[in-house]
Amino acid sequence: MKNKTILAAIIAALVPMTSFADELGGSVDLGMWNSTQQSAGGSDSHKEVFIAEGQFEHFIPLIPNVRFDTLSISNNDVKVSQTALTGYYQIFDNSLLNVDVGAGLTVAYDGSFANLKDARKTVSNFKGNTAKVNDVMPHIYAGVRVAVPFIEDLSVFGNGYKYTNGRSNGYDVKAGVQYDVGLAHVAKLRLKAGYRQIEGNFLNDMQSLNSKGAFVSVGIQV
Q1: Taking a C-beta distance cutoff of 8 angstroms, is the pair 199, 168 a contact?
Q2: By C-alpha distance, which of 135, 136, 133, 141 is closest to 114?
Q3: Are 135 and 202 in contact (CB under 8 A)?
Q4: Residue 200 has pLDDT above 80, yes or no
Q5: What are the entry keywords (predicted)?
Q6: How far apart are CA 32 and CA 17, in angstroms?
Q7: pTM score of the predicted model
Q8: Which of 12, 54, 154, 216 has the fewest CB within 10 Å, making it most exposed?
Q9: How far apart are CA 133 and CA 169, in angstroms?
Q10: Measured distance CA(187)–CA(55) in Å, rounded
């Protein structure tokens, strides 16, 4: 309860500082993440993961903008889908610097984790006993994008979530470069490449998710 009160106070203090879009807009990005999942037993499993994210921005004061991030991981030891829905405010929004902060919910669902024989040593065969994970976790969010000097339409970015609910906790962070290509003055083609890491602990730290690797994506912004 104390953490929720502090979070609400921070957001309330930031609202008067926020900037708002001049008109309705949004974006959708689709990509692939070359993730490496490290199991509790120390072995690595490599997998191409489809990723998607989107944003919706508006000009209505006080009402937050909305974004989502979603993916599904499936390998030898872990199968889980994770979706984050976030309401956020733009603290800065100009051609040189964008800063967003917000809060929302991360949902881990359809999760199957290989049961641990010893959390520090080995993992049982995934086809044997498994632990099911379905959980909803509040999160805080922050994102920043900075224009690269003297190179038009190129920027560097980073964003991430920190989530916890007592039973489960973790984070999802990524950073990279973004290049925008104008499309007939009505939209932008957005190209991204970077590095992403997700770490999660579920069922009171009995099951873990630790995936990381490079990603690429393409999107449309209007």
Answers
A1: no
A2: 133
A3: yes
A4: yes
A5: Signal
A6: 35
A7: 0.82
A8: 12
A9: 13
A10: 14
**Token pair recorded at residue 98:** 């964008």
Query: Domain segments of the chain: what residues?
Result: 2-221
Residue 20: its pLDDT value, please?
54
- Asked if residue 49 has pLDDT above 90, the reply is yes
At 204, is the secondary structure helix, strand, or coil?
A: coil
Residue 178: closest CA among 197, 152, 196: 152
CA distance 180 to 185: 12
How many residues are there in the chain? 222
Q: How far apart are CA 79 and CA 192, in angstroms?
A: 26
Q: How far apart are CA 109 and CA 104, in angstroms?
A: 16
Which fold would CATH assign to domain 2-221? Answer: Porin (2.40.160)
SS3 6: helix
- Distance in angstroms (rounded) separating the CA atoms of residues 75 and 44: 10
Strand partners, 32: 50, 216
Nearest to 133 by CA among 86, 82, 176: 82
Cα angle, residue 145 at apex, residues 70 and 54 outer, rounded to 5°: 25
What separation in angstroms does the CA of 195 have from each of 30, 35, 78, 168?
15, 9, 20, 24
